[in-house]
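May I ask for whichever protein you like with its backbone structure tokens?
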Amino acid sequence: MKKNELILAIETSCDETAVAIVENGTKILANAVASQIESHKRFGGVVPEIASRHHVEQITLVIEEAMKEAAVTWQDIDAIAVTEGPGLVGALLIGVNAAKALAFAHDLPLINVHHIAGHIYANRLVEELAFPLVALVVSGGHTELIFMQEHGSYEVIGETRDDAAGEAYDKVARTLDLPYPGGPHIDRLAHQGGVTIDFPRAWLEPESYDFSFSGLKSAVINTLHNAKQRGEELKAEDVAASFQASVIDVLVEKTARAAEQYEANQVLVAGGVAANKGLRTALEKKFTQLERKLIIPPLSLCTDNAAMIAAAASIAYKKGRRADMALNGRPSLTLM
């Protein structure tokens, strides 16, 4: 009888210390996450040095928690996977060195995983992937459209030329005096307000799938500053709703156009901003009209976690890809 494949994965690319154990690339046995949001909230963003220190404090505890939750021993584990990049270099190094230590100590294969590939493969924990497909990745550091012909094959067909969508959300939230992280607060306010301000949509060249949110962010900030100078009071709810409408319009339209052009069997949504209720609703409405299959992970798999890294690693494991003890954190790693 064939043994089920168990992969233990580590994710420490930013401010979440995460360890998961996944069976056959699709079934989560454990998905432990230690969040650092409270530590970074007072600074209005992630402080790399603080993030690294928290990873050092938490990594062993989270590994033990995942092993206990999955009720497995080291003899049951088939491979160790870890996020190689992109991310904060100090944070990445904690995860990479922990993974190398575990692989060496237990004589297990080591698999390096790209963080964005992980976000994409979070969808495989929901439903089996059907190719060809288009993935929309939206997070604090990334906004990309990726075309996949098969497992492990990535073609970036669109990316942000300046601010990522999540970055724009956080900067606008800061201007509205909302707590960090700003995305959930903007989303909440947007549902309480109306689209009363015509903020710009950056469509770029007619055939481009690239994104640009820097101009929108500046337009929101300038609108708020100008209103303050004139003694006018703008409702934060309406500003949030108008800003979010602009972001969503561009994300949805470009994703829909890519899905049609590339004849995608599935459209995947990935990354922290995929937790945004307004974006989820707009995408569901659009792709229902287009009669194309849309997959959006549950909220717990949208933000950084290690189950998604294990899901991506399962494909690499089956293809025989392995890393060695020279593996290092690569903060600017590109998706190949």
